[in-house]
Amino acid sequence: MRYPTILLIALLCGVSSLALAESSLLAGTAWRLVEIQSMDDQVYVPDDEAEYSLELRDDGMVAIRADCQLGTGTWTSDAPGQLRFGAIATTRALCPPGSLSERYLAQFQWVRSYVIEGGHLFLATMADGSIIELALLEPPAPVATLFGESLRDVDATQLQEIILGRLFEHYADEQGIVAEPDEIAAMLERLRAGRAAAGLDAETALSPEEREQLAVMQRDMARALIRHWKINRALHQEYGGRIIYQQLGPEPLDAYRAFLDAQQTAGAFSIHDPALAAAFWRYFTDESIHDFMPPGSDDETQAFAVPPWER
Q1: Under a CB-based contact definition with an 8 Å cutoff, are residues 120 and 133 in contact?
Q2: Is the model more confident about 95 or about 127?
Q3: How does pLDDT run across 127-169, given as a tens digit for each residue?
Q4: Which one of 42, 86, 118, 213 has the largest count of C-beta atoms within 10 Å of its C-beta?
């Protein structure tokens, strides 16, 4: 198509009413390629617009999809209507014949200005080379909501990690659950004794800087283990139920389920995607994938009776 004269003038001059009002409106947007028009009237249209995209991130980074290739780099807009891209690093994959991958990627080093009209982004290259037209790419529908925040583009594992992590963090804050310094020191001593008993003395070969880095990591690990155990104990005391064996210590599975049910009912989270919801809840409802502590056994009785750093 031939673009209206007023649009071409705006592109070449690097101005538009919308750009003048807000030059930062590009940040955090994503677009799909509609066409590339050369000034010799050659028009290049992708076979599949979804295979060609442009994401202008808030942190000044750009992510580009060009058919089978992926590109990353930087973008800047120093004034309304002006736009430049830094060097674009690509995966250099070999796309099939007829692909616009190379032509699309080659445009960005020459882009100097932009205009946004009717939900479309028009990029103009220097020396009147070409105009790249892109359409606004709507974000995917949220698959879940957590404390009022929409979660998108996550798989089942990531979704479970995010939801459990945030809910447990909130619960710990409400309950005042923290790892005390003396508890951390005791846990570190237990871990040190365990390594010594196993003949693990690799720390002696580390430099002072490496030892300090390792010490920080060990303190963080001890803090996390203690806090995790305390959260589990508090949940079991509140909700009761059966306990399962886990690598990081006893886990009150029934209490987890009751806690999550309560949080979901209270509106703390909601999973909108049926498949992800089924995958999320399977861990808490499919008993065949867990090893339960025998009811009334010493393991069950002692699970949350004595802290692991005191054993």
Answers
A1: yes
A2: 95
A3: 768 999 999 988 778 999 999 999 987 899 999 999 999 999 9
A4: 86
For 134, phi and psi rounded to 5 degrees? -130, 150
Query: How many CA atoms are closer than 13 Å to the CA of 250, on its beta-carbon side?
Result: 26
Q: In what order do the strands lie in the sheet with 269-271?
A: 149-151, 144-146, 269-271
Cα separation, 163 vs 280, whole angstroms: 10
Angle at 62 between CA 59 and CA 68, to 5 degrees: 150
Residue with tokens 């399977």, as numbered in its chain: 282
Euclidean distance between CA atoms 92 and 57, whole angstroms: 22
Of how many residues is the chain composed? 311
CA 56 to chain centre: 16
SS3 category, 61: strand
Cβ pair 85, 54 in contact under 8 A = no
The pLDDT > 90 percentage for the chain reads 67
Beta carbons of 74 and 58 less than 8 angstroms apart: no
Task: Look at the block and give the residue holding tokens 């010490």.
Answer: 215
pLDDT in tens, 113-138: 999 988 899 999 987 689 999 999 88
Q: Are 236 and 243 in contact (CB under 8 A)?
A: yes
pLDDT in the model for residue 14: 46
Give yes or no for a contact between 271 and 284, defined as CB atoms under 8 angstroms apart. Answer: no
Prediction pTM value: 0.64
Q: Write out the two tokens for 100.
A: 């616009």
Q: 257 and 284 in contact (C-beta within 8 Å)?
A: yes
Q: Strand, helix or coil at 115?
A: strand
